[in-house]
Amino acid sequence: MSYKKKITILGATGSIGKSAADVILSAPERFDVQCVTANTNAELLAAQAVKLKAKRAVIADETKYDLLKSKLDGTGIETAAGAQALEGAASEPADLILAGIVGIAGLKPIMKAIEQGACVAIANKEPLVAAGPLVMAAAKKYGTTLLPVDSEHNAVFQVFDFERPEGIEKITLTASGGPFLNRTSEEMAKATPEQAIAHPNWSMGRKISVDSATMMNKALEIIEAHYLFNIEPNKIDVLIHPQSVIHSMVHYKDGSVLAQMGASDMRTPIAHVLAWPERMETPGQKLDLTQVNKLTFEAPDFKQFPALQRAYKCLERGLYACVALNAANEVAVEAFLTNNIGFLDIMDCIDHILGKTKSAKLDTITDIIEFDENIRAETRDFIANGVTKKAAQAS
Ligand SMILES: NC(=O)c1ccc[n+]([C@@H]2O[C@H](COP(=O)([O-])OP(=O)(O)OC[C@H]3O[C@@H](n4cnc5c(N)ncnc54)[C@H](OP(=O)(O)O)[C@@H]3O)[C@@H](O)[C@H]2O)c1
After folding, report:
1. How far does residue 296's CA lie from ligand 1's centre (Å)?
2. With a 6 A CB cut-off, is 102 part of the ligand 1 pocket?
3. Of the candidates 260, 222, 249, 247, which has an alpha carbon nearest to the alpha carbon of residue 168?
4. Of 124, 304, 311, nearest to 216 (Cα)?
């Protein structure tokens, strides 16, 4: 029997985790699942663990441990709970660890996964945004291969000449434009969470769906690309491509432009990283170019989507600004999803925080987490005071 790759899925109950499970279950002869993790969804985690025949299931929220344990009783699947157990799951030997947690919560597990020294497939972009230099330095130190899962970065990875990067002129990240492309600011001001998460092409988790609507997702991706491909910010641009067929491109100095195409289905980049450096069949959709009438491209409207410029500005200011951008965004998006602020208030919160944040030296993961927590507290205060002010005005 040929060797089976040992896989751990961090965030097995999310959109990325479920797509990965689909790919793994379509080729059981290729993979052995070591560990699956989640935050609070014990029932789905238990179901995923059973389906994937995982050896261990870990839930971050300790209050959900009893439920997880009872659901897996008699299956022989080990269980554990808590932050330490989550980091333990990431530290367990595996051939590939898929980082599919959402937000900065994935930072410590990613660092543990990297220290383990195999392959880490990163969907979880926020840790790269907030700690890119440390993540990349750790990968170098431990000889760990980082494989990008984000469809744009996966596309760049597939056509990027890592041996001769001096021949590369720039990269273009494509963006669908999200659900509010060509909407007026009046319409966007009234947008509800349901409208914001209704992405025209992709089915994703709630946070990244809102990020796509504000185009903060593309802003985070600019920062992510800067670190992953060691490329200057002025060599990264963004094109609106509403059909989401070309997932990104690399422009070479001789005028050649290499692009990767595919259906809008995360199972393609996930299959790519799971099988890498080989190729495997995807259980997902395949691109049928006869069904694509046209491919269009346009420059983004920076006025309608100011988030993009913030990415370049934060990269210019330094790591502390990238941490602040990410933290303020995570808090503001959550406040929007829970109906505490409006859609356009997300950007106001971020701008308020970026305006008052002063430079800080962040040398370690502990420094970053501490700084991130302060920014979150400030953003929550701003939201609470803003709401109070609005309520006072209304009375
Ligand atoms: N979805 C996509 O198509 C897509 C595409 C490109 C990149 N990404 C990136 O991939 C990451 C995951 O996105 P998603 O859309 O899959 O998110 P999602 O559907 O919200 O899933 C998030 C996963 O992370 C777990 N989780 C959340 N908070 C956690 C915490 N504090 N500690 C431990 N685990 C936690 C969740 O567990 P529970 O279910 O228990 O809450 C769930 O398994 C994001 O960084 C996103 O930007 C996603």
Report:
1. 30
2. yes
3. 249
4. 311
For the range 352-360, what are the long-range contacts, defined as Cβ-Cβ under 8 Å and sequence gap of 24 or more? 352/328, 352/382, 353/324, 353/327, 353/328, 353/378, 353/379, 353/382, 354/310, 354/313, 354/314, 354/321, 354/324, 354/325, 354/328, 357/320, 357/321, 357/324, 359/317, 359/318, 359/320, 360/320
Q: Which of 101, 153, 203, 214 to mutate to test the pocket of ligand 1 (most atoms within 8 A of CB)?
A: 101
Q: Are strands 236-240 and 78-81 parallel, antiparallel or unpaired?
A: unpaired
Q: Is residue 39 lining ligand 1, measured as CB closer than 6 Å? A: yes
pTM score over 0.85: yes
User: Which fold is adopted by the domain 318-395?
Assistant: Rna Polymerase Sigma Factor; Chain: A (1.10.1740)
What's the topology of domain 5-149? Rossmann fold (3.40.50)
Q: Please list the residues that pair with 33 across neighbouring strands.
A: 7
Q: What is the DSSP letter of 36?
A: E
CA 394 from centroid of its chain's CA atoms: 38
From 8, 9, 13, 16, give the residue whose CB has the most ligand 1 atoms within 8 Å, as the site to mutate: 16
For 83-140, write each residue's pLDDT tens digit: 999 999 999 999 999 999 999 999 999 999 999 988 999 999 999 999 999 999 999 9
**How far apart, in whole angstroms, are the C-alpha atoms of residue 54 and residue 10?**
12
Domain boundaries, the chain: 5-149, 151-313, 318-395
Rounded CA separation 276/280 (Å): 9
Residue 35 DSSP SS3: strand
Quick: pLDDT tens for 320-353.
Answer: 999 999 999 999 999 999 999 999 999 999 999 9
